[in-house]
Write a structure and sequence with these properties.
Layout (H helix, E strand, L loop, with lengths): L1 H33 L5 H18 L4 H4 L9 H25 L5 H18 L8 H34 L5 H40 L10 H17 L2 H10 L5 H20 L7 H16 L6 H29 L7
Length: 338
């Protein structure tokens, strides 16, 4: 039964990785496509390639994210816990895509892990320890800090870029900004691979080898599998969410799109490589879009949609925790089968 459970959980990790790329592709391509810096087909191929590169590069950062999974029990109990967690995150991710709402896959994952752990603990199974610290480091602080930082940086950088380009002809300025956006989309995709790729690699390792295997030496197959799942999802593209980011939130032009991508790429790359922060690509992109758009005119911001998005973000870890709790209890008998 352990082999069957292992195979099922690895398959769920593949689905989660594909859905992660499918949903978060919008973060990199939405603004670039909106301002016609790149065509949709070229944009998704470019970002898929840099997503793969970021995922392969992320392997040496696994010690930072490994704390989320290192205490997962070994054997069937741990596999049941991971299975309930992944299904909860996948279900919420599909629902968010159907509604066209950008949200954090990591927050959904951590919420599902906490809910499933509580459910299994109630019936006497061993669950990960230190989940309160995991919640605050992976969900609580990033949920509060990264959107505020991204919004503020984009809000104050927009007039600075406008001032720098004040003597440029609009056509020349827009051409240069669109070219810069192509580079920005690549960096955002690379940063997304750094951030989310390491989580998927860690999930593959824990599912196949157990949490006791550690993350000092990352198997090549886990890196390749994570890169394929994330890159394949990016190629598929979640266009419902792309439309939300590029058309429904604010009225976007090349200058503000450039500022948003600059802020996002700087935060993702510096946050991963310099500070080792578990930032949400989605939250950072949305907040930077709103910051650059609000500087233009607060009336250009779709305030009712922003309120719904914030509510959806807050509901993400809570809802997946409930789903993980129910699924953990439902799947618990599988852990007793030899």
């Amino acid at each position: 039964m352990t082999a069957a459970l292992t195979g099922a959980v690895i398959l769920l990790v593949c689905v989660f990785g594909f859905l992660n790329g499918f949903r978060d592709a919008s973060a990199a391509v939405a603004l670039t496509v909106r301002t016609r810096a790149l065509t949709p087909s070229i944009a998704v191929v470019l970002t898929a390639g840099f997503n793969v590169l970021g995922t392969l590069t992320s392997a040496w950062l696994l010690k930072n994210i490994g704390m989320v999974f290192v205490a997962v029990p070994s054997g069937n109990d741990g596999l049941v816990l991971l299975g309930a967690t992944l299904i909860a995150a996948i279900l919420w991710g599909v629902y968010g895509w159907w509604r066209g709402y950008p949200a954090s896959s990591t927050h959904a994952l951590v919420g599902g892990l906490i809910g499933a752990s509580v459910g299994l603990t109630l019936i006497g199974d061993r669950a990960p320890s230190g989940l309160d610290q995991v919640f605050w480091l992976s969900v609580g602080l990033p949920l509060i800090v990264s959107p505020l930082l991204a919004f503020g940086a984009a809000f104050f950088l927009t007039p600075l870029v406008t001032w720098i380009l004040r003597y440029s002809q609009p056509s020349q300025a827009h051409a240069g900004l669109r070219a810069a956006q192509s580079v920005g989309a690549s960096i955002v995709a690379f940063g997304h691979g750094l951030q989310d790729g390491q989580r998927i690699v860690a999930l593959f390792i824990v599912a196949a080898l157990g949490s006791g295997a550690g993350f000092d030496e990352v198997p090549m197959w886990a890196m390749v599998a994570a890169a394929i799942a994330l890159g394949g999802g990016t190629l598929a593209g979640g266009w419902r969410i792309t439309y939300t980011l590029s058309h429904r939130l604010v009225r976007m032009d090349p200058l503000r799109a450039f500022v948003s991508q600059f802020v996002t790429s700087a935060m993702l790359v510096f946050g991963s490589l310099g500070l080792h922060w578990p930032l949400s690509t989605t939250h950072t992109v949305v907040a930077s879009v709103l910051g650059s758009g609000a500087n233009q005119d607060i009336g250009s911001v779709n305030v009712p949609l922003v309120v719904r998005l914030i509510r959806f973000w807050l509901l993400t870890p809570l809802t997946t925790a409930v789903l993980g709790f129910v699924l953990g209890l439902a799947f618990e008998p599988l852990g007793d089968i030899g």
